[in-house]
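Note to self: keep these together.
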Amino acid sequence: MKLTKLASIFAFVLASSFAFAAAPGNISVGSVEGTVVVTAADGVKTKLVAGDMLKQNTRISTEKDSSAKIVLANGTVIFLKPDTTLDVAQFEQNNPSAVDGQDYSAFKAEPEATAGSVTTVRIARGTAFFKVAKLLPGSKLTVKTRVGDVAVKGTTFYVSVSGASVNAGCIDGVIEVTPAGRASLTLTAGKSATISETGTLSFERVSSTLSDEAAAAFDSGEDDRVSSFGSASGSVFDVTMPPAAVEGPNADRIPVNSASSL
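Structure:
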């Protein structure tokens, strides 16, 4: 009897562990201004139109005076400013069908029914604002650049790439910035860090201009937090760092978390 009961429990646990299979999640296009080009995994290029549905392994490029807003099915909203190129290298969910047909932009937190997600985006140039719904404990969202990564769990922030220099700023919440080859550092609301092409790390306040742009991009208006940091500039201190190598397009993918680990 005991053996039979133990076997049943083991079978239940095993079935639960494999209840969900990681699969590409949906990405909806909320708005498009001007000319925005999307490059699919097979290299085919098309003009992006509001209402389009995308998948991972997709590149989105905005031209001059153009912008786009995309929404991931975990509640993450990304706004691309003009002259920006962003790759959605990976967006997988353990149970993507759980949110089929829903308005992803309305999610205040990642739906538990999806059983978690892993998101990896890369910014080659330009500036993108991110508004991330509170992610599930096992989920992960990482923004990669040539000189370092930014990781979040639920916040509003931006990443700007100009040549080999990268600036990341936290508008609301907390972000973790990891310069290539260095230990990670935490940025709280109102603070930003810049990694120059020579490897110098500097810290500044988030400008009121960028805070206001983020509020406008996400139609925030919910409070004054994103525009109350002032426009102070100038480094707090500098740290000399060796130049980081440019990350290639075939970087290792991060495996999606299994349902059993959430």
